[in-house]
C-alpha cells in the first residue's frame, strides 16, 4: 500500500502552480476551499470547482473509495482536509493569494521571509537563504511528517530558473536527501523558463544549470515542463477561445492549470486505487531504467468534444508531439512510454488498437522492450470529463533542451558575465570559487546529456557494463 506524499512548493512559480494543483486535487475529491467535504456522489454528473466555489447537482452518498488522505491530512474532530504541503516564498503576494483562495491551507505550513523582497532571480541568494533557515525548514517538514502514518514520498513543485524555487528548491533537495536519503521517493515537477523570443532574466541559464545539478543528484523522477512548449499547447487547446485572460497578472493561469492537471493525473492510480500502478514506485520503475535517465516528458490531449469519449483518438493524440510539455520531434527516441486513460468505462479494443499503432510508430531506443503500458485510471466522481488522459514518456528530447541551456550558459560563463551576483566579495579567489562551482554543475549536466545521447545506441547497456567493470 502506498503511503502519504508531502508536497513542497517554492517560489512564485512553485506556489502559483501549487495553487492550481491543490484546486485540481480538491475538485477530484470533492473538497471545498475551506477543507470541508461534499457528499460523495453516485451521480457522476456533479460539477464542482473549489476556486469558483460552485456546485450544481443533487447527490446521493456512498462510501468513499478514493484516498484523499494520501495527499491531504484530516483532523477527524473537525472533518476538514488540509493539503500535506509546505509553502515557501521570499515574498508574500503569491502565498497570500493561495491562502485567500484556499483557506484549507494550514498557515503553520507556510515559510515566508521576514524581509519579503524575493531572491532577485538569483540562485545563490535563494540557496544561501535556504542554508540560513535550514533549521526552520526542517522543522516544518518534520512536523508535517509526524502527521503521516507511513510517508512514501516527497514532491517539489518549483521553477528552475529564478532565485527562490531554484535556490531554496536546491537546498530543500539536499536537505531531503541528507535526512531521508533512499528511504523515501523524491520527485519534482520542474518548470523551465521561456527561451524563445522573450526577454526573461539574463542569468536564468546559471540558475538552471545550478538547479539541474541538484535534480540530477537527488531527485528520483523529474517531470519537465518547458514554458515554450506549454505556451504552444495552450495556444492549440484554446485556439478558438477568446476568453483567456492574458494580462500580466494572469499570464500563466492557463499554463498552470494544464501543469496542475497533468501533475494531479500522475497520482490518479494512487488516489483512486485499482489493481495496478497504485504507487509512485511502480510507475517510476516502469519509466526510469537508470538513475540518470529520469527526466520525464508528459502530454495532455485536447479535452472536450468527441475526444472525451474515444480512447483510441485520445491515446493517439497524446502521442502527438504538439501536445508534449517538452518539445519533441520525429528524431526523438523513446526509452519508455506510459499512457493513462482515466474514465468510468473503456473500450478495451480501442485501447489495444491504439497501443498497437503506437508501438509501430514510436521510435524506441534499441535495447528496451517496445511495451507501452496503459494505466486504466478511475475517474473522479466529481469530475465532468467522461474520459481524460495523459502520457508520460522518457525520451531523448532532453538532449536538445539541456544542450540549449548549456550553450546559453557557456555564452555567459566564458565571459564570466554577471558573476558578481553569485560572489560574496570581489576577490579573485572568490570569483574562482564561484567559477569552480559553476563548472562542476555544468559537468554534471553535460554528463546526463551524454547519457541520453548514448542511450540511443544498441551497445548502451554493454557500455554500462564496461563502465561498471572498470570501477
Ligand atoms: P525569485 O523571484 O528570484 O525570488 O524566485 P522565484 O522562484 O519566485 O522565481 P519565479 O518563480 O518567478 O521563476 C522564474 C521563472 O519561472 C520565470 O522566468 C518564468 O519563466 C517562470 N514562471 C514564473 N511564474 C510562473 C508561473 O506561474 N507558471 C509558469 N509556468 N512559469 C512561471
From TrEMBL:
A single GO molecular function term of this UniProt record: GTP binding
SUPFAM superfamilies the UniProt entry points to: Tubulin C-terminal domain-like, Tubulin nucleotide-binding domain-like
UniProt cross-references to Pfam families, sorted A to Z: Tubulin (PF00091), Tubulin_C (PF03953)
Domain Tubulin/FtsZ GTPase: 68-274
A GO CC annotation given for this chain: microtubule
Intracellular or extracellular location(s): Cytoplasm, Cytoskeleton, Microtubule organizing center
Stored PROSITE patterns: TUBULIN
Example GO biological process: cytoplasmic microtubule organization
Main location: cytoplasm
InterPro entries: Gamma_tubulin (IPR002454), Tub_FtsZ_C (IPR008280), Tubulin (IPR000217), Tubulin/FtsZ_2-layer-sand-dom (IPR018316), Tubulin/FtsZ_GTPase_sf (IPR036525), Tubulin_C (IPR023123), Tubulin_CS (IPR017975), Tubulin_FtsZ_GTPase (IPR003008)
Keywords from the UniProt entry: Cytoplasm, Cytoskeleton, GTP-binding, Microtubule, Nucleotide-binding
Organism domain of life: Eukaryota
Annotated family: Belongs to the tubulin family.
Protein function: Tubulin is the major constituent of microtubules, protein filaments consisting of alpha- and beta-tubulin heterodimers. Gamma-tubulin is a key component of the gamma-tubulin ring complex (gTuRC) which mediates microtubule nucleation. The gTuRC regulates the minus-end nucleation of alpha-beta tubulin heterodimers that grow into microtubule protafilaments, a critical step in centrosome duplication and spindle formation.
Protein name: Tubulin gamma chain
